[in-house]
Each structure stands twice: as structure tokens, then as C-alpha cells.
Amino acid sequence: MTAVLLVAAIVLMVALSGLLAATEAVIARLSKPELEQVAAGSRARRSIEAIAADPGAHSNALTFARVLFESMSAVLVTLILTDLFDVRWQAFLVSVAIMILVSFIIAGTSPRSVARAHPQQVMSFAAPIARAVRVVIGPVADLLVVLGDRVTPGRPQRIGSVSSEEELLNMVDEAADLKVLEHGDRELIHSVFEFSDRLVREVMVARTDMVTIDGDEGVRDALEQFLETGISRAPVVGRDSDDILGVLYLKDLVRQSLQEESRSKPAVELARQADFVPESLRADLLLRRMQASATHLAMVVDEYGGIAGLVTLEDLIEELVGEISDEYDRPGDEPRKLLDGGYRVSSRLATGELGDLFDIDLEFDDVDSVGGLLAKSLSKIPERGDRAVVDGIELVAERVGPRKRILTVLARRLEPLQESGIEA
Questions:
Q1: pTM > 0.70
Q2: What is the DSSP letter of 275?
Q3: How far apart (Å, rounded) are the C-alpha atoms in residues 418 and 413?
Q4: 199, 330, 198, 307: which is closest to 247 by C-alpha?
């Protein structure tokens, strides 16, 4: 009779251990919004809501109870086998073998597999038990957790929490690998996080590439320049590019050009007030600012108060969703693959984009473009044929434009033995 009761107690405790293991797996898998959604359609709504409010504490209590039941089961199995075997060590070995199989399969992997396959159903059924375990033995589990935290250094993390941006992006990559997310969605999420780290100077149109309207030009001449260049907005300048008088919109010119008496009117009278932003401003903050003010173009000012370039709303959006063809894009700006495995790139190409071509990190704090990187490596203004090697990438100045400005650069990866520094 005693043996029957012991076996019944063992079966009950093993079953409870399996149920607790399944509940732990569900708590670890479901997020707080998912738990709240399960609670909305369950009779155990209050218990599930309590678990969702503090999943870590409930998980600790369940773990403590499961270990307690499995330990008691092991002791009872050993007592039963001691009466069956004359030699104690034989009883000990058999009990160990039995409990390993029971703990790993019946109270371990099997219930967790069921929980992962049917998390909502398991939670609805087991939530009242999990809540009762938390209320009854939760304080003991909390005390043991505090003692454990004192023994092992490090700040504990909450169940289901994401502790860093890198961890969240790794989860996104894993979801994309499992086909839960589309590749385009993955790239968009990565772009959003990278966008918050970008500065305006990294996305702006450089001063040397700006199309400007002279302040003394008439409406007709300004309209012709707009039509020739294909732009829709341009800064109006006075004495030089640092003297910004305003921003001229094509639609304002077209409206005035329909009036015969206004065609000879100075274009500067139609210019709208220019918005000036520092080149060190974060790109995401500028995007919110431009959305709030309904502006599409801002002038970028360097640390000395001079005009460094301009930035458009399209430039900012491109950082999030990818390339958008606009009036400042040029047909030759895209990198071209060469037969030797290298690339012909624009000197304006961002260093980060060059690094992406060769799967390396080429981010620098003091330069943003390939042309700037080449000049920094040479410590002078590059001339045609000048060569430098940066992080195993050979950069060769190819085409040179007005004012000795490099237009295109040849880039290719070198073998380790070929890396020989700078040549001019």
C-alpha cells in the first residue's frame, strides 16, 4: 500500500513538473501584448494579466517549484528501489537513470514542445496554477534569486526584454532568415536604426554640386535655368554661395511667368525664407523638423558659419527607403563593376557605401565621401593617377574636373601582399 502511494505521488509530481515546464516555455515565448491578447478571450483572464505584468517573477517561481517536485520525485524513486535491490549502489544507479529519462523527456522536452506548438491553449489552462505557485512559494523563490544575484555579479534582465539595439537587430535578422520578415522589411528596419546615427553632412548635397540662382536674375532667366537643370527648388544667392537670400520654388516662377508684366521682375522677390541647419544636426531630427514646417529644402551651415551644402526632404527619405531619383541625382553616380573585380565610383560616394561594396566597415568621423577619404590618405588634393590604400582597398584618382576636383575613383580590393600604402 505504501509503495502504491509513493508511485502515485511520483506520477503526480512528474506531471506537475511537466506542466510547470510547459508554462515556463509559454511565458518565455509570448510577449506582453500577446499575453494580454490571450487574456482577453480566456476565463483565466486575471491570472494571465498578472503573469503579463511580471513574467520574470512568475517564471522564477515556476522554476523553483519544478526543481522542488523533481527533487522530491528522485528521493521517492530512490526509496522504492532501495527495497527492491539488496545493494544500495544498484538502487542508486537505477534511480538516477530513471529520473534522467523522466526529467528530460516527460517533464522537460515533451511539455515544452507542446507549449511551443500551442502556447495560447497551454497558457489558458495553466495560468491559474502558475498564479497560485507564484502566490504560495514566490517569496521563497524571490529570496533565492536575491541570494543568487549577490553570488553571481551582473545585472539581471527581465524575461522577454531586449537589452540592446544590436540584440533587437539580431532578432530581425533571424526573423528574415526564417522567412517571417521579407528581405525588404529587414533592410527598412536596419535603415531606421542607422538613420538615427547619421548626421546632416553625411546626406547633404555638397556646396560644389549645388545649383544656385543669382539674386539679380529675372523671372524668365531663372525659369530657363530651372528647366535646363530639371530642378524644382534652388537657393538664391547674392555676392557668393555663402550669401543666401532665400529659396526659389519652380511653381512660384511658373505662376509669375504667366503674367506678362511680371516676367522681368527680379526672381529674388519670389524667394521664400531659407531654413538653415547645422551640419552636425542628426538626420532624423531634421526630418521631423521639415515635416513639421512643411519644407522640402534646408541650407546646411558648417561650424564656421559658411554654407556647406543643402539637404532636401528626398535626401532624408532615401536614407530610410533607398534611392529615389531626384533633380540632384546624376546618371554616373552609381558604382560600376569592372572586369578586374573593382568598381568605378563617384568621388561623392559615401565611405560607408564603398565599404558595403567590399563587405567591410569604412566609417570615419572626419570624412564622409570617397574623394575626401582619398585626400585624407594622401594628405593633399588628389591628382589624376594618385593612389592610396585604405583598409585593404586601393583607391586611384581617375577623372579630374574643374578646380582640380576629383570626379571618379577606381576602387578594388588588394591581396595582403599588395598593400603598399600611398603613391603619388
A1: no
A2: P
A3: 10
A4: 307
Q: Does residue 424 belong to any structural domain of this protein?
A: no
Q: Is 220 exposed, middle or buried, given 0-12, 13-18 or 19+ CB atoms closer than 10 A? A: middle
Mark whether 296 and 335 lie in a shared domain: no
Helix or strand holding residue 250 (H, E): helix 250-257
**Has residue 342 been placed in a domain?**
yes
Q: Which of 175-189, 272-286, 403-417 has the highest mean pLDDT?
A: 272-286
* 339 contact partners, CB below 8 Å, separation of at least 6: none
The answer to whether 26 touches 119, Cβ cutoff 8 Å, is: yes
Contact 395, 413 (CB under 8 A): no
CB contact at 8 A, 108 and 21: yes
* Cell reading at 344: 568605378
Beta bridge partners of 247: 235, 272
What CATH number should be reported for the domain holding residue 348?
3.30.465.10
Buried-state track 247-279, b at ≥16 Cβ within 10 A, e below 16: bbbbebbeebeeeeebeeeebbebbeebbebeb
Show the cell assigned to 23.
Answer: 508554462
Residue with cell 512660384: 252
Q: Quote the number of domains for the chain.
A: 4
Neighbouring CB atoms inside 10 A of 44's CB total: 20
One-letter amino acid for residue 104 of the chain: F
For residue 361, the Cα-to-chain-centroid distance in whole angstroms is 16
Distance between CA atoms of 142 and 156, rounded to whole angstroms?
13
Please say if the pLDDT value at position 365 is more than 70: yes
Q: Are 227 and 218 in contact (CB under 8 A)?
A: no
Task: Give which of 371, 349, 353 is closest to 362, Cα–Cα.
Answer: 353
Tell whether 185 and 262 lie within a shared domain.
no
Q: How many residues does the chain have?
A: 424
Helix (H) / strand (E) element for 110: namely: helix 110-117
Q: Is the distance from CB of 291 to CB of 315 less than 8 angstroms?
A: no
Chain segment 185-219, per-residue pLDDT in tens: 888 888 888 888 888 988 888 888 888 999 888 88
